[in-house]
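Re: [ENG-882] Designed sequences occasionally contain unexpected residues at chain ends

Forwarding the minimal case from QA. Structure tokens:
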């Protein structure tokens, strides 16, 4: 296997050197815009400083001294807080929340998908180094590089990757857990068996998938999730999932073996045969979750810990932040045209590097220089006052759009241990295949691989080698669970769903908190932007959250006059986050109002 992170800046390919040269030569003389790099004088955000008003509802923003959970699903948040109060640590609570969300937020919470858990140990830990649990799905042994046709529907069992969630949660629990495994799975079993109250967000989510005409052949999904009275789901209804309860009971009693072997595995493999999927009993037993070293970068004195490959999130964010560090962002307001322009240009360049180099580092070499300050300043030197056409960065490539749902939650315990967890089925409800008799959805994560090797085109397909399918390989992800510390103290726990927009949602929140010192509720509420190199388009989130008070109309006009192709979107991401104020010892959780999330602390 190739070495991870062995290439240095000097060892770049000739082609890359040429493209760097081109970038440097394109430096314009017009540096009016950027001013000198600011010295690295970082400040801890002022205590819950309110630079922008945030609507504080008790569920949306919560304060606590001893522990905090912020997530999309209120019943799962309650489970997490109970685990913390019962003496569990942040990893215990995270494991319990993850299982609970597999019941209460089925569009993304899962046991049939995969994800990433970033953990920063607490004050009392001997080894305080943050660590990362990679439970990303893998390609089944029978997968081949060209198994998919461009444009093929992803809502089929052929797109299912071997799930990682249960092994990943078990691995994290084995390393850090204080409470017993059954204690952490039990609340989810009860939620599935006894049911729980459906809220508006869940009703909308279920009705959406059940009424979608593309779900017409998903008979098992309809059998399990249709409302028993044959009507739409409403706020206040009760959802019961007895088959999922039985599956979770096997996991509770046998650990991950209760998912990857025995009855659950039999049901899984039978489903694969029935619906044309590739995963075998051997794929399931062979699945391994891995502990990895997070990507560590710094931003004006803060330590940023992010997701390593097979995620692109940690590297892309480190690269963008390294560029922004020298660009004197705060010279202007957070939503001034120049600020958004500079951020968009950093995003564009980070996503270009992502497309060229990133994939599963167990299979491909990921250049170490991508996270170096020197490389970032080389790239930043090519920014000027007008938008850089994406084509000028590389003539031949373009990248695919992401799907719509994943979910992120954040947990902090009394010892300051923090967990940032993002997991997914890829699309909302994944492949929409529900394992017959098992009661759980299967992912369609194979769609995150490059779909056709060698084929890159204007419509957004990419075929670079780094992310081509191979048996056992993990597909490239954008999930970016992130933890920020300063002088060893926790500052921020964040992350989001949103496909490729995840990386930039996290970037926006990090900039809001670290650079603009926004209160966490405001930082999460604030409009977000997204540029992913190709399509050459700057997405600006507008006006859905009127209370944020940002009218971006004139900013958008200014961005257009700088050459940006601006499109507006109604919502980007769902970033349930936690801020810790070391000066007061206070935690503040902020659930993202883009969905009906909840933050609860004590
Ligand atoms: O791993 C990834 O990057 C994607 N499968 C995540 C998909 C996603 O976030 C869709 N959601 N909103």
């Amino acid at each position: 296997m190739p070495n991870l992170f062995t290439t240095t800046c000097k060892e770049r390919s000739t082609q890359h050197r040429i493209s760097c040269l081109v970038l440097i030569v394109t430096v314009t003389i017009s540096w009016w815009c950027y001013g000198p790099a600011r010295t690295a004088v970082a400040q801890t955000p002022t205590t819950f400083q309110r630079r922008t008003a945030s609507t504080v509802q008790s569920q949306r923003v919560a304060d606590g001294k001893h522990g905090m959970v912020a997530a999309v699903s209120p019943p799962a948040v309650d489970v997490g807080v109970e685990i913390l109060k019962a003496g569990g640590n942040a990893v215990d609570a995270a494991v319990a929340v993850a299982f609970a969300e597999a019941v209460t937020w089925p569009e993304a919470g899962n046991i049939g998908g995969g994800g990433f858990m970033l953990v920063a140990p607490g004050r009392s830990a001997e080894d305080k180094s943050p660590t990362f649990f990679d439970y990303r799905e893998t390609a089944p042994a029978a997968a081949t590089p060209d198994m998919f046709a461009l444009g093929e529907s992803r809502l089929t069992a052929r797109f299912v990757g071997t799930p990682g969630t249960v092994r990943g949660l078990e691995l994290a629990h084995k390393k850090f857990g204080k409470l017993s495994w059954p204690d952490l799975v039990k609340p989810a079993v009860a939620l599935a068996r006894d049911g729980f109250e459906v809220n508006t967000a869940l009703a909308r989510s279920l009705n959406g998938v059940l009424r979608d005409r593309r779900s017409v052949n998903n008979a098992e999904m309809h059998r399990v999730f249709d409302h028993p009275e044959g009507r739409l789901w409403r706020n206040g209804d009760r959802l019961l999932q007895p088959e999922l309860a039985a599956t979770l009971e096997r996991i509770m009693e046998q650990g991950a073996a209760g998912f990857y072997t025995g009855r659950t595995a039999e049901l899984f493999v039978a489903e694969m045969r029935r619906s044309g999927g590739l995963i075998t009993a051997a794929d399931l037993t062979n699945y391994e979750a891995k502990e990895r070293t997070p990507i560590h970068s710094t931003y004006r004195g803060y330590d940023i810990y992010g997701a390593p490959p097979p995620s692109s999130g940690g590297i892309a964010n480190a690269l963008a932040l390294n560029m922004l560090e020298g660009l004197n962002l705060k010279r202007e307001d957070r939503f001034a045209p120049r600020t958004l322009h500079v951020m968009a240009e950093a995003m564009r360049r980070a996503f270009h590097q992502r497309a060229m180099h990133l994939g599963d580092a167990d299979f491909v070499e990921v250049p170490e220089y991508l996270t170096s300050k020197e490389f970032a300043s080389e790239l930043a030197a090519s920014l000027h006052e007008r938008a850089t056409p994406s084509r000028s960065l590389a003539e031949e490539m373009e990248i695919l759009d992401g799907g719509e749902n994943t979910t992120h939650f954040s947990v902090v315990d009394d010892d300051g241990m923090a967990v940032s967890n993002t997991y997914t089925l890829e699309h909302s409800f994944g492949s929409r295949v529900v394992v017959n008799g098992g009661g759980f959805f299967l992912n369609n994560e194979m769609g995150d691989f490059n779909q056709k090797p060698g084929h890159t085109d204007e419509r957004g397909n990419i075929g670079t080698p780094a992310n081509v399918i191979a048996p056992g390989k993990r597909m490239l992800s954008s999930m970016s669970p992130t933890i920020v510390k300063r002088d060893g103290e926790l500052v921020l726990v964040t992350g989001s769903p949103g496909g490729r927009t995840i990386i930039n949602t996290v970037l926006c929140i990090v900039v809001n908190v670290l650079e603009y010192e926004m209160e966490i509720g405001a930082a999460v509420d604030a409009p977000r932007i997204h540029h992913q190199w190709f399509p050459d388009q700057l997405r600006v989130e507008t006006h859905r959250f009127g209370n944020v008070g940002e009218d971006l109309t004139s900013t958008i006009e200014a961005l257009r006059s700088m050459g940006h192709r601006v499109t507006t979107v109604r919502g980007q991401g769902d970033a349930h986050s936690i801020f810790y104020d070391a000066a007061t010892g206070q935690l503040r959780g902020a659930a993202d109002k883009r969905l009906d999330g909840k933050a609860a602390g004590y």
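QA comment: On inspection the terminal residues look reasonable. The pocket of 6-diazenyl-5-OXO-L-norleucine is lined by residues 402-406, 424, 426, 445, 448, 477-479, 497-499, 502 (CB under 6 Å). Proposing we downgrade this to a documentation issue.
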